[in-house]
Amino acid sequence: MTIENVMVIGAGQMGSGIAQVCAQAGFNVTLNDMKEEAYNRGIQGITKNLSRDVEKGRKTEEEKEGILGRITKSLDLNDAKNADIVIEAAVENMDVKHSIFKTLDAAAPEHAILATNTSSLPITEIAAATNRPERVIGMHFMNPVPVMQLVEIIRGLATTDEVYTAVEDMTTKLGKTPVEVQDFPGFVSNRILMPMINEAIFTLQEGVASKEAIDSVMKLGMNHPMGPLTLADFIGLDTCLYIMEILYEGFGDSKYRPSPLLRKYVAAGWLGKKTGRGFYDYS
Ligand SMILES: CC(=O)CC(=O)SCCNC(=O)CCNC(=O)[C@H](O)C(C)(C)COP(=O)(O)OP(=O)(O)OC[C@H]1O[C@@H](n2cnc3c(N)ncnc32)[C@H](O)[C@@H]1OP(=O)(O)O
Ligand SMILES: NC(=O)C1=CN([C@@H]2O[C@H](COP(=O)(O)OP(=O)(O)OC[C@H]3O[C@@H](n4cnc5c(N)ncnc54)[C@H](OP(=O)(O)O)[C@@H]3O)[C@@H](O)[C@H]2O)C=CC1
């Protein structure tokens, strides 16, 4: 199948990054959020990234304008009527995703693929909200989207080979590397990454070392580009907690219990970089 028109749901850090890389690759992009302010914030982020590319001589001003010109604003999920693929990147919550997928199923053309950028929620369960589970798939980008190479592609129970191949081809057109993964809690990326982050939070909670020391150990000792607490702030502590809860519930194994300190920070609204405060202060 041919993909020309892409709709992205959610203009947060992931949705705006996905919209940027799709527009850069020449796709027509409709970027949707519930609120105009959220859409405007998303476009501001994209514009900032593209302007940096122009300053560094990687793009011309015309290319930047061309990319921005391929992104159209949407505040209504019914704008999916022209989409060949929808990539959902709203909040990590099953009820929200179910409601979005139900609406998209009614609004999008029959041939359209409904993809989700979920970090951990079961693709099969999201697909069950639609009448087209064979056209629902996980397309899991990494943060920051314009920089990271990987897209995990997750098959739901009913996903067809045709849909898998179309998403794999699109991923390659975006300049990214697709990796096939089955539908299990946390897939591969977050099943391995998030318990490490959670353990770092337990280590902090138990007073084993300061936050700076914990991050330094993993940066200098293991050559990670960011320490685990800085990375948690970067991902969003709410998203980290949602993922740990999915792992804990999905496997029924106490080794995945979220750290109480993580719960406390989320309850306080300290969600990391995006709210200005998490383990570190960004104000
Ligand atoms: C939770 C999930 O479901 C899955 C996930 O995504 S888990 C998170 C996965 N991501 C990671 O693990 C990221 C780990 N961190 C890193 O790789 C690096 O710290 C980083 C790429 C984010 C920043 O790299 P850095 O060397 O420390 O900083 P910096 O020099 O400012 O940036 C490097 C390049 O990335 C670009 N960059 C950094 N942040 C960016 C952003 N948010 N958007 C676009 N580009 C960005 C910079 O412009 C810079 O590009 P050039 O060198 O070509 O100019
Ligand atoms: N953060 C990360 O590192 C990664 C996250 N993901 C996944 O990507 C998704 C988005 O995460 P992220 O971008 O970090 O989150 P953000 O909080 O940055 O962005 C989510 C955006 O979606 C909007 N939104 C919420 N509900 C709806 C809706 N019903 N319709 C349209 N828009 C909606 C939010 O609006 P408002 O703010 O007004 O609620 C917000 O603008 C999640 O599923 C997450 O698990 C995947 C890979 C990495």
Explain this structure to me?
- With 283 residues, the chain is α/β, with parallel strands linked by helices.
- The protein contains eleven helices and eight strands.
- The protein has helices at 13-24, 36-55, 61-69, 94-107, 123-127, 161-173, 189-205, 211-222, 228-235, 237-251, 260-267, and strands at residues 5-9, 28-32, 71-74, 85-88, 113-116, 136-141, 150-155, 177-182.
- The protein has an eight-stranded mixed β-sheet, sandwiched between helices.
- It is globular, with a radius of gyration of 19 Å.
- The protein starts with a strand and ends in a 16-residue tail after the last helix.
- NADPH dihydro-nicotinamide-adenine-dinucleotide phosphate binds next to helix 1 and helix 4.
- The record marks 140 as: Important for catalytic activity.
- Belongs to the 3-hydroxyacyl-CoA dehydrogenase family.
